[in-house]
Design brief:
Layout (H helix, E strand, L loop, with lengths): L1 H13 L3 H46 L4 H14 L14 E6 L5 E7 L2 E10 L16 E9 L8 H5 L3 E9 L16
Antiparallel strand pairs: 1-2, 2-3, 3-4, 4-5
Helix pairs in contact: 2-3
Length: 191
């Protein structure tokens, strides 16, 4: 019996650093898993903010009182003031808007800061493709508004390390709610 206790004591002494070694082996995998969960959570949060900004931009387009560049500016302000902030840039940063129209009459506005793309907004009137501004739309015109954000603008970790250079995109289809003009005749009918 005495011999058995001494061998158990010797076995415990030999395993003293095993837990530390196991922890050192597992720690990088645990940290990688945690960073991945945080990054996916950040992407989901920003994606929700982006959908809200796109819906708000489409709502503003449907009214038809502002042009597409003003609406893009409003969407950028929405994104920069949202929580979580959709960009890793301060709200007071100067952003340049460049508008272009392609052969399919899709208006593309690229917002950039210091030469790097911040986001891209696309607008297309599906009913009257040549009318490429919400102010020229007719009542019940269906239009498409699309917002795209490069993933590297929102990533906490270098996005190209994990999955190349993906883009988060939200597309909304909406109808123009511009009222048809009503003509009122100021003269009374004679009867």
């Amino acid at each position: 019996m005495l011999h058995r206790e001494s061998s158990a004591a010797i076995g415990k002494a030999r395993r003293g650093g095993t837990a530390a070694v196991e922890f050192a082996v597992c720690l990088p995998w645990i940290m990688l898993l945690l960073f991945g969960i945080w990054e996916v959570g950040r992407m989901v949060e920003v994606n929700q903010v982006m959908w809200g900004a796109t819906r708000e931009g489409a709502r503003q387009c449907s009214v038809g009182s502002d042009n597409i560049q003003t609406i893009t500016t409003n969407v950028l302000v929405y994104l920069m003031n949202a929580e979580p902030n959709a960009f890793n840039i301060p709200a007071a940063t100067t952003i340049t808007l460049v508008k272009s129209t392609d052969s399919n009459n899709i208006v593309t506005i690229v917002a950039s800061r210091s030469g790097s793309e911040v986001c891209t907004m696309k607008y297309q009137n599906m009913v009257h493709p040549t009318q490429n501004d919400p102010t020229t739309a007719s009542q019940n015109d269906k239009f498409m508004l699309q917002l795209s954000l490069p993933y590297h603008n929102i990533a906490w970790v270098n996005g190209s390390f994990f999955m190349g250079d993906p883009t988060l995109t939200s597309t909304v289809y909406w109808y123009s709610l511009i009222d048809t003009p009503i003509v009122v005749n100021p003269t009374l009918p004679v009867g």
